[in-house]
Amino acid sequence: MRAPIGSFDHATPAPACLDVLIRPVAAAVRDWQGQVPADQLLYVDTDPGLADTAVFTEHYGLELLDTSANCVVVAGTRGGETTTAACVVLSRSRVDVNGEVRRRLGARKVRFATLEAATGGTGMEYGGITPIGLPADWQLLVDAAVVDTEWVLVGSGRRRGKLIVPGKAFAGLPGAVVVDGLGV
């Protein structure tokens, strides 16, 4: 199958390649309940040595600069309580951590989660964290621009491989809250 974006050699419906997906992502795909059919979630194999955005897009297609999203893990604190959340924004923007995220989490202070907290909490590899398969007790904030993008390239849970997902599917992920202005 040809990928709808990028110049990937081959795209495979995610349900047909659960064995190459990391455990939490494979479980989320297997138990998929979204309005977008699971077979519209596509897996593409990528070279982890090309993970840097500039090198990645030069190799797989410059249009990916406008259709790629990052999933960033943050920790908000207030009164000794910590709330962990994932934020999904298009790659060309950054997460409004000290504004929109802080307000949404009701936190006094928000910081990017440590490498250990992000990978340990998700069971995913750093540089490949995806909103598909996140822990059920985490909040998931998704920028409206991601939902409005026809096809979005995101991590697959590993540094090798990516998922290509219809943007509207992100609004249906467990616990997802679509936020205007999350990415600035």
From TrEMBL:
<dbReference type="GO" id="GO:0002161">
    <property type="term" value="F:aminoacyl-tRNA deacylase activity"/>
</dbReference>
<dbReference type="Pfam" id="PF04073">
    <property type="entry name" value="tRNA_edit"/>
</dbReference>
<feature type="domain" description="YbaK/aminoacyl-tRNA synthetase-associated">
    <location>
        <begin position="58"/>
        <end position="168"/>
    </location>
</feature>
<dbReference type="InterPro" id="IPR036754">
    <property type="entry name" value="YbaK/aa-tRNA-synt-asso_dom_sf"/>
</dbReference>
<dbReference type="InterPro" id="IPR007214">
    <property type="entry name" value="YbaK/aa-tRNA-synth-assoc-dom"/>
</dbReference>
<protein>
    <recommendedName>
        <fullName>YbaK/aminoacyl-tRNA synthetase-associated domain-containing protein</fullName>
    </recommendedName>
</protein>
